[in-house]
Specification:
This protein has 293 residues and is an alpha+beta fold. Helix content is 22%, strand content 17%.
Length: 293
């Protein structure tokens, strides 16, 4: 009997590492995509390369200049923004309470301005959502906590850098004004914005993916990235794998949201940065995982 109990305990201890080994093997083999065994979240391989980062079309903001050459290593990126259902698993497993729940709610666009509303959080942002919608009312700290929890499976998940995010949004460094296209008449086929979202998020995967198979890189929700924001960072950015300033006051968000016009969901847009504890009904995130662990 003692031997049987020992075998059972050994099996239970080993099981979490089986999924880790499977994920690591997938990474080592450079699969074009994989599904995280613990969460069923889909990831797409983004082959590294070099590209002109910034506003190559000349109609953006000053902080999108100068256009500069940047190179990034291979990484995996979430095919979709993190969903309500995926975030719910984390909350249940980790007994986590978001900053909106612990503090004074989430900022919502009310009567022409952003107002903190104690009744709003990821469970109820003030508009209908189901588990397929991207989770919102996320602070940078919430997003980081989720990434740390995901990393408990054994693989190193994190938020993308601005450079990784823009490279992926541009379908691997292509000269795309919006993710998937540079033709304004086609944007509605790729993105949810002020023009077509109905003043709320929409389910993931309803629009066309970009050239890498990534959905909603333009619009639907703003996505937190890992970098501290600096207006002048592009002037002195390193060429290889830039990760933003070493310190700062605000974290960057990219991609625009359901509440933005087309100009502000461009791939080069650096329209927003915010305190790591801030959260809006337009703010979510997606994760990446380096190929080299």
């Amino acid at each position: 009997m003692r031997m049987i109990l020992t075998m059972i305990l050994t099996t239970l201890l080993v099981l979490p590492f089986v999924s880790t080994a499977a994920a690591s093997a997938t990474v080592e083999n450079n699969m074009k995509s994989f599904t995280d065994p613990a969460t069923n979240m889909e990831f797409v391989l983004v082959k590294g390369g070099c590209f002109p980062m910034g506003d190559t079309f000349g109609d953006g903001e000053k902080n999108e200049q100068p256009v500069h050459q940047v190179c990034v290593d291979d990484f995996y990126m979430g095919r979709y923004e993190v969903s309500v259902g995926e975030f719910r698993k984390f909350v249940s497993a980790a007994n986590y309470r978001t900053e909106a729940e612990r503090r004074d709610g989430c900022a919502a666009w009310i009567a022409g301005k952003w107002v903190m509303d104690k009744s709003r959080n990821w469970r109820d942002p003030g508009f209908p959502q189901d588990d397929s919608h991207p989770v919102v009312c996320m602070s940078w700290n919430d997003a980081r906590a989720y990434a740390d929890w995901m990393s408990g499976t054994g693989s190193r998940y994190r938020l993308p850098t601005e450079a990784e995010w823009e490279y992926a949004a541009k379908s691997g460094g292509r000269d795309e004004k919006w993710s998937g296209t540079s033709d304004e008449s086609e944007v509605g086929g790729y993105a949810w914005s002020k023009e077509n979202a109905g003043d709320q998020t929409q389910p993931a995967g309803r629009k066309k993916p970009n050239g890498l198979g990534l959905y909603d890189m333009s619009g639907n929700v703003f996505e937190w990235v890992g970098d501290w924001h600096s207006v002048d960072y592009y002037r002195d950015s390193p060429k290889d794998n830039p990760a933003g300033p070493s310190s700062g006051e605000e974290k960057a968000l990219r991609g625009g949201s359901w509440d933005n016009r087309l100009k502000n969901i461009r791939t080069a847009t650096r329209r927003r940065s915010s305190d790591p504890a801030s959260r809006l009904t337009s703010d979510g995130f997606r994760l990446v995982m380096p190929v080299r662990q």
